[in-house]
Specification:
Two copies of one chain form a homodimer. Chain A is of the alpha/beta class and about 400 residues long. Chain A is built from 14 helices and 15 strands.
Chain lengths: ~400, ~400
Amino acid sequence: MTQSPWQLAARAETMNPSAIREILKITERPGILNFAGGLPSPETFPVDAMRAACAAVLAEGSAVARPSLQYAASEGLPELRQWVAAELGRQGARVVPEQVLITNGSQQGLDLVAKVLLDAGSRVLVETPTYLGALQAFTPMQPRFDSVDSDDGGVTASGLREQLQKGERPRFVYLLPNFQNPSGRTQDEARRQQVIAVCREHALPMVEDNPYGELWYDQPPPAPLLARWPEGVIYLGSFSKILAPGLRLGYVVAPPSLYPKLLQAKQAADLHTAGFNQRVVAEVIRDGFLDRHVPTIRARYKTQRDAMLAALAHHLDGLGAVWTQPAGGMFIWVRLPEGLNAQTLLPAAVEAGMAFVPGAPFFAGQSDVRTLRLSFVTSTPAQIERGMAALASVVRAAMSGTGSGSGA
Amino acid sequence: MTQSPWQLAARAETMNPSAIREILKITERPGILNFAGGLPSPETFPVDAMRAACAAVLAEGSAVARPSLQYAASEGLPELRQWVAAELGRQGARVVPEQVLITNGSQQGLDLVAKVLLDAGSRVLVETPTYLGALQAFTPMQPRFDSVDSDDGGVTASGLREQLQKGERPRFVYLLPNFQNPSGRTQDEARRQQVIAVCREHALPMVEDNPYGELWYDQPPPAPLLARWPEGVIYLGSFSKILAPGLRLGYVVAPPSLYPKLLQAKQAADLHTAGFNQRVVAEVIRDGFLDRHVPTIRARYKTQRDAMLAALAHHLDGLGAVWTQPAGGMFIWVRLPEGLNAQTLLPAAVEAGMAFVPGAPFFAGQSDVRTLRLSFVTSTPAQIERGMAALASVVRAAMSGTGSGSGA
């Protein structure tokens, strides 16, 4: 054997297999009641509309068939950029299509943001807990993460001030204000105003990630941060949760001063997002399709959320666990009774027929090992009922010291 | 106006608007005979096969419809990974599907390679000239490019040795051995053996980019570099030139020791390549579709190449210009007579009704300002004849000092 001729970049050392990916493997046992995933329900995918749109785009004599298969502009399809600007307008943000960059899902938006804004050692502020995929997207650019004190409304104003008083100025704070992954929590109107006030006062820009905003079950969430500080917010959105993730379509909305650099990063990364997918989605969503389709997703997920909250209240009552009451999205965040560890409890849970994701990987700083994330969107109410009963049984066993999940 | 709250990463300063993108804008005048683009002919896109494949994937009762729209594995669809391994096997390379990573076009492969292998200041060796898109993909990781002495067969063995004797060891040499963009040249069998020998001797790994290998018009090119040094080559391929670029489907084949890092970089960058596109292409190419389809592309492009070589010989004869005789691909590389500058000649050419790309942006080191690139694949033989006549007229005018393109 000769020695390897390859020498890795320093950043490659920081890139590691996703902890959650490894965890998900053990949860994929056939027949398990799986609340671990972060996938939307495939039942919500608009297969009929996709079929019709593909047929229309590729029809004989279609003027868009060959253009949709050709190289295309790095910025994205004009029709989609216009749709995004109009949609954000409905939510109170003043956006022009020239600020919209179409990406391969919002994950790519995070990658481009990191490339353009992060040097090795740059500080990034994140929520406690925060979206794991964002940590993974930012990590290759080797920033230092600082975890901002957070409560049921997300980062607190005092937590932000505390971080701003120590160390160098952060490049940005990363926030997921609506139905956060993993916690399910939402910034209410008052909190948004407080957070914006602190960020403006300290010239701390924000990266606002909003994949779940349309999935509200009680009332629409407050206006986005973007609407409140247009020049200080990069906004990320996605078609993954309202149409289908397998299309990989998301978008970045950036202040005009930053847009050219994000566009150059996009061009260098993969030239452009698949034009065929963009054309098909533009075809699907014209004539207000989403105004009819999204309410059907909301109705489905609301039933499932209600079933999970009811089952948790029923089965975990009196055990000392607490959990969030999400007003939308896909996730409930549970904190186990004192002394338990979600990671060590997982094998017993899988043994009992259900799976969750331990919360530890979602913390950029000190992990709360008692936490876990449950998705309610891919299981029926009956499955949710059985799953929460199984979870309660392993929690009880662990508390009595007989289960494999005992101890911290 | 308050000051911008954003601070850019150092690498963002190195990212600039593509020179070629700006040039292409002036060539997009309606009615112009455009040889400037790098696009395949849309006439070659298999619209009927795509329509049938989309209909099959999304058919009522299709078992793959909803999975194709769901989140998917970062590695790519097993069927496509198997196809790539088998296809490379036919070309003499021993590859297993586990070495194949499906990417958003091969441009993304270049981005992932840069992330995993390049630190700021790392040396990268490139051909003279080289593919501009690779320079753009690598640049955000801030390497130093060194341009290897090259002739009609690509980099020379002595040029490689010369570069290896000075400075630190390069992280890799980037090569496009078949019908190179921009020059159209090909490494013959003898040159491949010489280059491999030098690289093995000096443990200099190679990134082999092969978007055009299937587009041969006389005989298939020699076996890929990958087949000759499996542990020392990362290989990039693409469906863009044999199916359609608007699908954004390419692939990276990596030695098993490097694969996990590239996979992690892919996962961080955008989770995975669109599963819908992968499923549709798998449906298109099963049953040997490409064995019937690619020969039709070859026949079309061969006619166009022959027309351009004949027109160049006819119209530029005796002017002192020289050009390559590509055995495949999409491009011919012209070197204008001494004293002319392709960039300054371009406005006169556009005025005369034709457009090319000046060669200067394709050089990582000292540019040869006399060079330009012509694409022969999107014009008819009649258009090619008129376009080369127009080119000859502006060259003549510049040589006689009456044209706007005169002077160096």
